[in-house]
Design goal:
Blueprint: E1 2-6, H1 10-22, E2 27-31, H2 34-43, E3 49-52, H3 61-69, E4 78-83, H4 88-96, E5 101-104, H5 109-116
Parallel strand pairs: 1-2, 1-3, 3-4, 4-5
Helix pairs in contact: 2-3
InterPro entries: CheY-like_superfamily, Sig_transdc_resp-reg_receiver, ST_Response_Regulator
Domain Response regulatory: 2-118
Keywords: Phosphoprotein
């Protein structure tokens, strides 16, 4: 499984990468904003899962989600919004835009395992 981690926090990306490693996922690509994520996505296909933060500079996660879902090349990429944004309206908005699921930070490796189906 190849995972694209998208978060503007280097610390959060490191934590998530370590959690994935604990779960047996070593093939991890990282990006620090939505614009960089789109570039990394095109350069590293096939990507199986994208863990996408909501609040980021340059291009936020919601805009990135809409861009990815607007390109059929990436129809098989499972996208999980991983964010501290826990308002129900945001969850609904992300799911309607094509997110496969929503994970509220902070989360444990067990939550990650359950949500992405490892």
């Amino acid at each position: 499984m190849k995972v694209l981690l998208v978060d503007d926090s280097n610390t959060m990306r490191r934590i998530q990468a370590n959690q994935l490693k604990q779960l047996g996922v070593d093939d991890v690509v990282q990006a620090e904003n939505g614009k960089e994520a789109l570039q990394k996505l095109s350069e590293n296909m096939p990507i199986d899962v994208m863990l996408l933060d909501w609040n980021m500079p340059v291009m936020d996660g919601y805009e990135c989600l809409k861009a990815v879902r607007g390109d059929s090349t990436y129809k098989n990429v499972r996208i999980f919004m991983c964010t501290s944004e826990s308002e129900k309206s945001n969850v609904v908005q992300a799911l309607k835009a094509g997110a496969n699921n929503y994970i509220v930070k902070p989360f444990t490796p067990d939550v990650l395992k359950e949500k992405i189906g490892l």
